[in-house]
Each structure stands twice: as structure tokens, then as C-alpha cells.
Amino acid sequence: MAGLELLSDQGYRVDGRRARELRKIQARMGVFAQADGSAYIEQGNTKALAVVYGVPRGIGGVRSRALPDRALVNCQYSSATFSTGERKRRPHGDRKSCEMGLQLRQTFEAAILTQLHPRSQIDIYVQVLQADGGTYAACVNAATLAVLDAGIPMRDFVCACSAGFVEGTALADLSHVEEAAGGPQLALALLPASGQIALLEMDARLHEDHLEQVLEAAAQAARDVHTLLDHVVRQHVREASILLGD
Amino acid sequence: MLQKREKVLLLRTFQGRTLRIVREHYLRPCVPCNSPLCPQPAACRNEGKLLSSDVTHYVIPDWKVVQDYLEILEFPELKGIIFMQTACQAVQHQRGRRQYNKLRNLLKDARHDCILFANEFQQHCYLPRERGESMEKWQTRSIYNAAVWYYHHCQDRMPIVMVTEDEEAIQQYGSETEGVFVISFKSRQERENESQESHGKEYPEHLPLEVLEAGIKSGRYIQGILNVNKHRAQIEAFVRLQGASSKDSGLISDILIHGMKARNRSIHGDVVVVELLPKNEWKGRIAALCENDSDDKALGESPSEPMPTGRVVGILQKNWRDYVVTFPSKEEVQSQGKNAQKILVTPWDYRIPKIRISTQQAEALQDFRVVVRIDSWESTSVYPNGHFVRVLGRIGDLEGEIATILVENSISVVPFSEAQMCEMPVNTPENPWKVSPEEEQERKDLRKTHLVFSIDPKGCEDVDDTLSVRTLNNGNLELGVHIADVTHFVAPNSYIDVEARTRATTYYLADRRYDMLPSILSADLCSLLGGVDRYAVSVMWELDETSYEIKKVWYGRTIIRSAYKLFYEAAQELLDGNFSIVDDIPELKDLDEKSRQAKLEELVWAIGKLTDIARHIRAKRDRCGALELEGVEVRVQLDEKKNIHDLIPKQPLEVHETVAECMILANHWVAKKIWENFPHQALLRQHPSPHQEFFSELRECAKAKGFFIDTRSNKTLADSLDNANDPNDPIVNRLLRSMATQAMSNALYFSTGSCAEEEFHHYGLALDKYTHFTSPIRRYSDIVVHRLLMAAISKDKKMEMKENLLSNKDLEELCRHINNRNRAAQHSQKQSTELFQCMYFKDKDPETEERCISDGVIYSIRTNGVLVFIPRFGIKGAAYLKNKDGLVISCGPDSRSEWKPGSLQRFQNKIISTTTAGQSVTFHLFDHVTVRISVQALRCHSDTIRLEIISNKPYMIPNTELFHQSSLLLKSELVKEVTRSMEEAQLAQEVKVNIIQEEYQEYCQTKGQSLYTLLEEIRDLALLDVSSNYRT
């Protein structure tokens, strides 16, 4: 037996979703008071926390890193030691976290209007509390909310989602089981209003003919995520305004 | 809205630690219930297969029942079965992939009235497993709960029966809900625990899967398919390497598995993992002839040089199927002794080991052929355990034996069902079928403009190809091939399509045939008969007037009316300018002299032009790919397989070649077209170049006669075969050619997405791309190609594609299935022919009957005998030079043979038998000898023909007249004779004598419509000689 049947003949995935269905998403903004912006998101069992220290703070640390024409975006990713099933120590600054930090930075440099704040720095810290597939997507979505919470001007939301390909069908929002099966996986960060792609990453080989289908699945999923996040933001603003009003 | 739940699993890792895994589990309010009684079909999104509405209750099998008694649930009589997802998953986890795939296929098969209900994803059906609850209990509880929900979902209108083996469950749930009955599954047989052999292991355990996979990757183990030598099933089996592993290990030949112990419970056809033994334990294969019934008796022969030898360490995929077996006769039962409940039955196929089944009906079933299935094979047991499935028929009875052949080839031919027939168009005298006006608009109408005609064997019913040729206004010629438009009547995924796909081809046995499509299509509406309007798919080429260069090609749907339904002989006569045949053409009979003359001239011109064009195309093909193999090959094969003599005349007519060439041209151009439009999902046919090693035997044999065979390319091979002609003995050339064909591999269907373009090549026809397009009535591949062509045409017109084409993966699967079925069709045809041969000789006394003595040619030499080919009957068989008592053959001065003590000496191309008295006799390759044919009657297997050399001189025909008469003993006559004697025997049993029907059903429908189609079949047949010895 070479593993689970990822997609049954009836079109169900291992966890009961259909091919294009997302996992349950729950999110909250403004979870920490000290930080400029913060957010918490749950995508299924993947849980991530993002914190943003924003514009007013000038450059911290090495001054020479400051950019003359735009703000510097600094992203740090870490995952909790208890985030996976097996207990594993993950020292700070291992390759995987560095790579993820870099990807997040690329994503947000494309989305934040950095030229509005030259010679300043924006710090985004993301921590994954529980990893169950699609960590990159969860981090991006959490960070988007945190950046919004911090009031940093952005072109648009950045919404991310992963997609995979199993037996001729594209699956949206892969869970850990599906990722572990080793098929091709595509991570997409999208600016939903313009449809621009902030980041696209693909590992494993996939035939060119199928790429379009998988990309479309990921994009549709990202748009769906956008709807949800938009809802969360509006809810948050409404609550905040009520508190302020009273 | 989905509801999220979580499932906590505790898994054990490979290191032995316990891992806690939390998996999400989403529930939804609506899951397709696939019941016609569903109150909200829109919400349930019921698509595809529904349960039928005429059942009295639904059956829901428990997980245990699905696991253990799946084959009972497979019976088409059982209707309205709902498989719960919980049960399916249990099968997947407990029984492995093979069983699970069986279940999946069952669910997919539109003919079986069963569905899957995804109960675990339905919010009301899902029950989380409680703490401390065993898996089994939870599964039963889930299934019962789902059954109750389903009952209420259908608004309590359909009672539900849950069958289970669990007594406790019956107690607990039996009377809980009204309308949901929980009953136990009464199996027809009592199963007993296999305890008697628990002491001592017979076989080593199989290694776990991870170890096997790791071993294969590292190159320590080798993966391949087990192939048991039919003639030494107890001792010899070979593993044919699969794909990559052969390259890595550097092994060219197959791996020998010596003995049952090394084979370690694997059965013929299994995908096994093999470990090579150290070189000093390698063994050679035995080249001596041996009789099937003699078990692993040590023969005093020295085996050939050692070859890689190994032992099976694990089985990756079991390939068990239904087996036909025979119960031991009474005397043997008693000798089996103490445990009379358990009986060892002998499979019909030599390659399958004996199977132990438990039944009390052994005595009653003694004279029957019976189907059994293997359940398991424990390491503690010498033989596998199985169970009885059904009875086929009496041993020796024609119908029973035919059914045996069908089961052994996994051919299932039930009459077409009512649902399938309902899809068929009507054509009765009261309500004749007509061309519909809409179709008339869409199709090109060739009825008025083209002279379309067909050339077929006499008495053919299913005409699927017609031809036309005419001069265009610009002086160019237009050649047209028009093929019956079967896809118009057979919609994709309709019931009839599903059935045709399962059958994949029309099966031709010696005395009967099983059609792929119902006769309303195959013999009527799709058949391009003369003088009626029919739909067709046409390919038309515009050719240059003189050079016959192809200028344009047009593909499309048309309406045609065939003007003439000619037969080959008539067409040839017309071509030769002999018009006396005109009276045999019904279409021309009732005309007055003048118009008849005009029509005749028109027809003769068309046939002449066609022949001219075909000659030209053929010559061009010869020039640029250059091969003459096919044409000659056929003639040879046909001569050799005498049985098909009745279908075509001895000397193939040129008209045959003309028709064949046009069909090849059409196939070739269609292949190009579909490949261009669908480079990754077109169905083509490839014929790989053969391995040079396989030709070594051919070269050796030819050398014995002083010929040199150059096998480097298809051209050189064909040329040197042409030259290898012994003027005194035409049979030598025949045999050499048949050896050449045997060395080649089979032509196969494949999907273009699955292999590189260089591999598309067709070796036999020397074409770069080839497919099957011209016989959609009797081949499913052609139907697929028709659909592809239609899609390609609408793609050209920028129209939306109406049909969903198969993806590369699906097509690959389909190709594998069709190839498989074709092979089964060939095997069954061959076996049924052999069956009739045996029945023919069975009631003749070999000592007295003149017909049983015949001339034979030696075509292969073994250590203790020779293989002999009998041209008169087309039989190949073994003749021993050394018998069981160790006596060897010797021939006296009168050339009569006797058995005397002595020894044999084998050389490359001769064998010398020397008696102790010093007499010696030599048999050379290609020597003519006289043999006596007798039938060895076997209880458990099919009867076999035995040959005995009675003289080392060619057989002298005492009476030439008699010879001429009997040499034309055709297959159909043989079949007729056997059938008649069978019927007479039956009539004798019944006291009432009916009027004997003298009209035996002749072959009304041919095996093919043209030489070309015939050629394809015969060549396939010849390429795969199942009975021939296993070659390395």
C-alpha cells in the first residue's frame, strides 16, 4: 500500500472536503496591545500569529541598511517547537525559517507601499503555533491582517493559498497529509483586486499542461480567502469604532 | 456549510514510538445518496449511477461482509447494494489494494446495481469513535447509524437490510428501528479454520513492503512478473524483468525460479520481488521434453548452461483471478484420507498450483468443471486455500469446455441487457430506420455524387469499410475510404458503450462468435450494405492524375449509399477482364443490357483505378520504408493455419492487397491527424522492433539448411526470408517465416502521451504512425479513434468540442485493457481450435484410422525428442525419441520404428538415436517423418494431441485422390463434424429423435472484411504462440 487515497472516486479528499474547498478559516486582528499591529489566524489546524512593528520607528540596528527611497521590510519566521506531531527542536535561523522569511519579505515588498516611508523599517514577525500544511499561506494571510492592523498603507490585501495536483485534479489548500504524499505543490500569493501575483512558488515537477489548472485553483482559493479576510477586517473595524464611539 | 471536527489518531512510528496525530474531518449536510427515492435530488447532487427503482429493499453489507464475501456481492442478481464508506475504508486498510480495486471497479461498473454512500462525511451519519471503543465496534455502529439515516432520508419508503456477521450487532440493533433489518449473512459454505498444518512452516515469510521497496531501489532485489513454464509448472518459473530494474542490474535474460520453495507462494502473473542467488547455485533450464503429468521427476538430462537464478522474497501485487478446476476422481478422494472435508482440486491451467477447498459436494461435482477463487496462502500451508464459486459444465462436454476457455481468459459474454438494447435505434419493417433531416444537413451527402462499393469475402454481414474513386473536374483523382459511423449510434458512456468497452473486441471462437455490439448495429444499421443509406465517416484524398501524389485530404462525416457489395473473387474477375462473373452480381442482374453495360464499365474502371493507386502507394511504401514482410507473411500464416483456409483462397488475389492497402492508408492518415491535434491523448498502434537475440534460433535453423538470414532491419529480414526457399520443400520457408514472426513482439495500442515519439513506429508496416480506424464494428479501439477524429475535426472548425476526450492517463488504462482483451481473444480462439482438433481425433482409433497417420516436419530438436509440424492439419506437437521406460526409437530397414534400449545424442541440428545393438538413426532438422496422431485424454486439463513417429521416411500417400480430398479438411468442416457428433450423442441420450437439423451454422460473418484485417489478426495470433516453449 503506497499510502492513502488522496482523492476518492466520489471526489472527496481525506478530510472530507471536495477538490476546490478550503479549510475552515478563523482570524482575529489586534491580539497584542504592545505591537503596532497583530493578527492570529487558523486555517484548519494550521495556526499562525503575526506581529508588525511599523513605520514610525526608524531604523533599528545597523543604520547603513536604511534605504534612501523606500522603507525596508524585514520579515522573520519561526515555528514553535510544539507545532508538529513529532517533538523536534528547531534552532533559530535554520535554513527553512530563513527561506520562509525571505519569501515573506518578497511578498510584502510587492504589496506594501514602501516608497511612502523612505529610510524607515517595517518588521513583520510570524510564528507558526501549529503546522498542518500550508504554513506559508497561513503566514502571509496572518501578516496581511497584522499589517492592516498596524495601519501601514498597502496596494491591496495579499492573500495566499496553496494548491496541489492529484490524479488529474487540482486540489486547493493542501493539508499536511496531502503535502506529505509528495505530489507537486504550488504556493501562490495574490493581490486579489488587480489579480497580480506577488509570489509564486512551485516544488516538484508538474507537466506544463496542468499548470494552468493548478494555478487557477490556487488563484480562486486566494480570492475566496480574500472574501473571508475582508469580512474579518470589516468586523474588526466595526468593533473598534463601537468601542471608540462609546 | 461544512462543519469541522477533529479526529485524533494514535499511530506507531517505525521507531516504535507512539505519535499523536490530529486530523481535521469536515462534515457536510448533503452527500449524494444516489437513490431514485431521494426527496431533494438537487440538494444531494446525485450524478451518475443511481440505484435501480425496482428493488424491494436496499442491502447494506457490514464491513466484515464486504471484506470477506465481496465475490458474492459481485453477483449481478444482487441489486440495490449500498456500500458504506466506512466499509470501503475497512477493505482498503485490511485487505489491501487488490481487493479494494475490485470494489472500486464494482462501484464504477454501470451494470452493477450498487453505490457508495460517503457516510463519514455526512453530518448526521458521522459518529466519532468513543474512548475505548474498538475499531470493529465503531465501524459496525457507524454503518448501522448511516443505514438508519438513509432509511429516513428516503422518507421511510424503502426498507433497508443490513447484513452482518456480528451476532452482537444483531442482538443490539436488530429491533431498534422499524424498517431497518439487521440479519446475518448465511454463507453457503462452512469455513473451517485451517489448523491441520499449523506445525512447521512450508515457506519462508514474505518480507515487509518497506524492505522490498528499499531493496528494489538499492538494486538488491529485482522486481518482475512471474511466468510459470507451462510444461514444467512444478519446477520452472521465470521472472520477466520490469522496466527500470533490468537496466540497473545489467541482466538481459529472465531470472529462473527453480522449484516451488523458491517460488514462495507466488502464482503465475503476480508481480514479485526476487533476490538473486549466488552464482554457484545458478541452474540451467531443461531443454528436454517432458509430459505435463509427470511431476518433478528428476530427468536424467543435463540442463543447459546456468542462467541467473533467484528466489521470491515478496509479492508486490497478486494477480489472482477465477480459476477453472476439476475435483479429483473417487479413488483419489479416498487416498486423500482422513480429512475428507478439505479437497485438493486441480486447476485447468497447468501453471496454477493445486488449490485446497472445503466442500461437502465433492462427490457430486466430480464430473464437472468448476470455478474457484483463491482466498489466501499461508506460509504454513503447501497449497493455497480457496472456495467454490460455481459450476460450468460437464467435463468433455462441448459447452462446458468452451465455458472453461472463456473463464480462463476472463471473458464474460452475457447477452445484451434490456437497458442496453433500449438505447438502440429501431429498424423493423413497420418502422424502418431513416436518415434524419438534421443529420442530412450536417453531413456531406455522397449518395448522388460518388460511386461507393465494398469488397468483402462472400456472405459477409458486417461491412464496415467501403471504397470510392472518381475523377474531379480539375482532372485530379479522388480516392475515398468510408467507414461505418458507429460512434453516431454509440454515445460515450452510454450503457452500450460501457459494455462494448468491457468486451473491447468481438471474440471469435472456432465455432461461434461473441459480438462486441448488438446485431442490430453490427449486421444492420452500421453495416454498409448495398443499396441503402448509411452514415459513414470518410477520409478522402485528392491525388494527382498521373503521379498519384496526395494533394489534399479531407476527413468528415458523410452519408453514403453503397452501390455494390462485391466479393473478392468477383472483383478479381472484373479486374482481369472476365465479365462472365457479372451474373453473380445481384445489383446488375435486373438491368437491361444497355444500362448494365454502362454501369459495368464504370465499375470496372473504378476497380482498375483503385488497384493502380494501391500498387503505387504500396511501391512507395516499399521504397521509403521498404518491407515486403507483411504480404508474404500472411500467405504463409494462412497456409500454415489451415483452419482459416476456408475464408480466403489459397493464392491471395491482388484485390485483397488493394483493399488492404487502402485501409492501411486510411489508418495511417487518421493516425497522423489525431496525433497532430491531440499530441498527448491520441490512441495509436505501435509495433516495436524485435530484439536481435530472439532471432538466434531462426538463424541457427536456417544455417542448417544453408540459408543466411539477415535480421538487422525489417527490409533485410524480408529479403533474406524470400531467398531462403528450398525448391524441393516449400514447408521449410513456411517454418522459417513462422519462426521469424514468433521472434517478434506484439503490436500494441498505446496513448501518445505515454511514450516518446520515436517509439510510435510500426515495424511490420514500416510506418511512423499507425492506428486502427477501419473496423469500429468489431474493435473498441476504432471507436475511440473515431471519437478522436471527430473531436479533431470540430477543433479544426473552431467549434466547441462536444465530447470529453479521455485524458492520457485514462487512455493509457484503456489501451492496457484493450490489449489485454485482444490477447484473451487470441488465446481463446487458439484454445478453442485446439479443442476442436482434439475432439476430431478423439473418436478415431489411431491404430486403424487412416487419417490419423500423416506426414510431419521436424522443426526443433530437444534432448529427448523433436517438435513436429503437421502441415495437413496445422498441428504442432512434440514427439518423443525416448519413452518413459528409457527405450529409444530405432528404425529398421523397412523404416518402421520400434522401441529398443539405447541412447540419444543431441547436436545443433540433428539428433542421433543409437540402440545397444549398434543400430542408429538420425533425425535432421526439417526432415520429413511419418507420425501417428492420437489424443491424450486428460481429466483435469484440456485434451492434448500426441504424436508418435512411426517411420523416418515421409508419409507416402497410398491414394492420391484420397489425399486431395482429405487434405482439404477445412476448419469449418472439422468444426461441423465435431458439432454433429456431439449433437448425435445428445440425441441418442434423449429418446425422442428430432429432425436433425442439417443446416449447421456456417460462418456467416467473417473474421474480417478484408485481407488487411485478417492479416492483422493472423499475425497477432502467430506472434503470440502461447503453447510454444518459453523462450529466453
UniProtKB/TrEMBL annotation, chain A:
Major site of localization recorded for this protein: cytoplasm
rRNA processing in keyword set: yes
CDD domains: RNase_PH_RRP41
Pfam families referenced in this protein's UniProt entry, alphabetically: RNase_PH, RNase_PH_C
InterPro entries assigned to the protein according to its UniProt record, in alphabetical order: ExoRNase_PH_dom1, ExoRNase_PH_dom2, ExoRNase_PH_dom2_sf, PNPase/RNase_PH_dom_sf, Ribosomal_Su5_D2-typ_SF, RNase_PH
Location of this chain's protein in the cell: Cytoplasm; Nucleus, Nucleolus; Nucleus, Nucleoplasm
Domain Exoribonuclease phosphorolytic residues, every copy: 21-153, 156-220
UniProt keyword annotations, A-Z: Acetylation, Cytoplasm, Exosome, Nucleus, RNA-binding, rRNA processing
One Gene Ontology term of the molecular function aspect: mRNA 3'-UTR AU-rich region binding
GO cellular component: cytoplasmic exosome (RNase complex); cytosol; euchromatin; nuclear exosome (RNase complex); nucleolus; nucleoplasm
GO biological process, one term: rRNA catabolic process
SUPFAM superfamilies referenced in this protein's UniProt entry, alphabetically: Ribonuclease PH domain 2-like, Ribosomal protein S5 domain 2-like
Family: Belongs to the RNase PH family.
Subunit structure: Component of the RNA exosome core complex (Exo-9), composed of EXOSC1, EXOSC2, EXOSC3, EXOSC4, EXOSC5, EXOSC6, EXOSC7, EXOSC8 and EXOSC9; within the complex interacts with EXOSC2, EXOSC7 and EXOSC9. The catalytically inactive RNA exosome core complex (Exo-9) associates with the catalytic subunit EXOSC10/RRP6. Exo-9 may associate with DIS3 to form the nucleolar exosome complex, or DIS3L to form the cytoplasmic exosome complex.
Protein's recorded name: Exosome complex component RRP41
Species the sequence originates in: Ictidomys tridecemlineatus
